[in-house]
């Protein structure tokens, strides 16, 4: 058995999970998990869960991430003993750019390379790096591995990642499509192939990660050939608060006509658009309530949301040449049958036939929700980014 700690350090939060990984056969086990919220703000809080025990909750101000990590280590001690026998610590890092294309053992060069990508992900890479530094100081003997959200998409061909901008300018500034949620797309693509009982190298999938952020990937024989997010997570689908695709001229128009600054527009498109902008709520459960009450804006927003996804499914079916399965995952993909039905409606021509009753049945397991005669299988596969990071970390540590 090997233990792996997975850490996701955000600007004001730390999420973590400790796994016991099997040597060969057997299932990995989550031993403990938790979240530290509102670091450096009022209302700081740690919630630590281990097995069936009552969660440990500590509400206290934490000045910085070092204090946050201290709370985590103390919670482990209180819950059953310090973290020992770690084979590795896996860190989620949002942006690997085009240089960090696989899970990487952290050394001075990796740290520099992650820092070099910071302009591409100014809100994410710096805290990710901070988490790595603190973990290295706390566990100097333990190998640290960085797992990148962008890595899975690095197999995209140039035709998918190039923007039609002047090539020298784009190359100099590294303006291209990178894609995100890669750890999730990779995990559900593998699990979907397992569920279908076919080798990953033989199946063509469209994976739909529909959470607060949302993205689609076209996966051909286990390799990503296209994805909907771009230079940043703003491109692509309609999301909780992000607009997704729009005419770039909207930006100039907002600037010239409404006098908004670049920062205002950044905030508008990332935090006040999407479902929040259209329907007045970004949580799909709230939107479902509004739809049930007959709110027209919410009904229309759902239509926009599902239609955008459907367009991508059509485009990616063309990119793949043949589609074997459509895979739904993340908070909305796993739990919202109305969205799944809305996406599949009208895709009959592509060979998608949803089974109404299977779609409505609730379960936490990977499952098929298409009709038996559907040419394209429709699956729900719960994602588990932490477990994927743990597995990739162990693979790197074991060489
Ligand atoms: P994040 O991108 O923050 O990780 P999640 O994957 O948790 O997001 O997805 C958040 C979305 O999933 C919200 O819109 C929420 O309404 C929806 N969601 C989560 N759980 C459920 C549930 N049990 N039933 C319906 N919708 C859910």
Structural notes for this entry:
The chain is α/β, with parallel strands linked by helices and 399 residues long. Helix content is 39%, strand content 20%. The protein has helices at 65-79, 108-116, 125-138, 158-161, 167-173, 182-196, 249-258, 262-271, 274-279, 284-292, 296-320, 330-335, 337-344, 356-360, 385-397, and strands at 2-9, 14-21, 29-37, 45-50, 56-59, 86-93, 104-105, 144-148, 204-210, 214-220, 223-227, 325-329, 367-368, 377-380. The chain has an eight-stranded mixed beta sheet with strand order 5-4-3-2-1-6-8-7, with helices on both faces. A six-stranded mixed beta sheet has the order 11-10-9-12-14-13, sandwiched between helices. A hairpin with a 7-residue loop joins strand 3 (29-37) and strand 4. Helix 10 (284-292) crosses helix 11 (296-320) and helix 11 (296-320) crosses helix 13 (337-344). The longest helix has 25 residues, at 296-320. The radius of gyration is 21 Å and the shape is globular. 42% of the residues are buried. The model has no long low-confidence stretch (mean pLDDT 96). It binds adenosine-5'-diphosphate. Adenosine-5'-diphosphate binds next to helix 10 and helix 12.
